[in-house]
Amino acid sequence: RAVEEALAEYNLNPVRNLTGHSLEHWNLHAGISVPNYDNNDPTILEEGQAVAIEPFATNGEGIVNDCPYAYIFSFLQNKPFRMKNTQRMLQYIEKNYRYLPFSGRWLTENFNEHRVNSGLKQLGDAMAIYPYAALKERTGAWVSQKEHTLIVESDGCNITTL
After folding, report:
1. 53, 51, 60: which is closest to 15 by C-alpha?
2. Radius of gyration over alpha carbons of the chain, in Å?
3. Residues 21, 50: one domain?
4. Phi and psi at residue 141, to the nearest 5°
5. Looking at residue 24, what is its pLDDT?
6. Are 15 and 57 in contact (CB under 8 A)?
7. What range does the domain containing 96 cover?
8. Cα(41)–Cα(34) distance, integer angstroms
9. Number of domains present in the structure of the chain
10. pLDDT tens digits along 64-73
11. φ and ψ at 57, to 5 degrees?
12. Do residue 118 and residue 143 come from a single domain?
């Protein structure tokens, strides 16, 4: 509710189908959702929980949809590939990112840019990596996002990001 009220002061709307979330070891988007509006959810955060608060603000309706392209990916499983470059790329992804999201452009430091794009397509088609679709506000409006991670304490919280 606090995010929704703060945004209203600037004549902005929260994005309703994106939320903050709890965090766990090797799982950035764990079980609990932290909405940016009052949805009457009675969940109370518990001491020791790690939570990402992610206000998404827009001057549009507040609904985002998937686009047909992806820039962020995560490793799913190791698989054999005939193309050596694709196999090396998958091994590099598994070793360096494990199950954490990564950007395709990060791979261009170690792999040819053209081969990165074709390799990511092959890896996604084979379900060795998961492509996160880019998002667009339904009306074409601007969307901004900010994120802070915090640890819930008995008397408040400890913000772990700057």
Report:
1. 60
2. 19
3. yes
4. -70, 165
5. 83
6. yes
7. 66-134
8. 9
9. 2
10. 988 888 999 9
11. -115, 145
12. no
Sheet holding 13-14, edge to edge: 13-14, 56-58, 143-145
Q: How far is the C-alpha of 149 from the C-alpha of 1, rounded, in Å?
A: 18
* Average pLDDT score, the chain: 91
- Report which of 82, 104, 130, 71 is spatially closest to residue 92, judged by C-alpha positions: 104
Cα-Cα end-to-end distance for the chain: 22
Helix ranges (H only) for the chain are: 2-8, 84-97, 113-125
Residue 3, SS3 per DSSP? helix
Tell me how far apart the alpha carbons of residues 33 and 15 are, in angstroms, rounded to a whole number.
Answer: 13
The pTM for the full model equals: 0.71
Q: For residue range 4-63, what is the model confidence (pLDDT) as tens digits? A: 999 999 999 999 998 888 888 877 777 888 898 989 988 888 999 999 999 989 999 999
pLDDT at 74: 94
Alpha-carbon distance 145 to 26, whole Å?
Answer: 22
123 and 73 within one domain: yes
**Do both 85 and 36 map to the same domain?**
no
Please answer whether residues 55 and 18 qualify as being in contact, where contact means their C-beta atoms are separated by less than 8 angstroms.
no
Residue type at 155 in one-letter notation = D
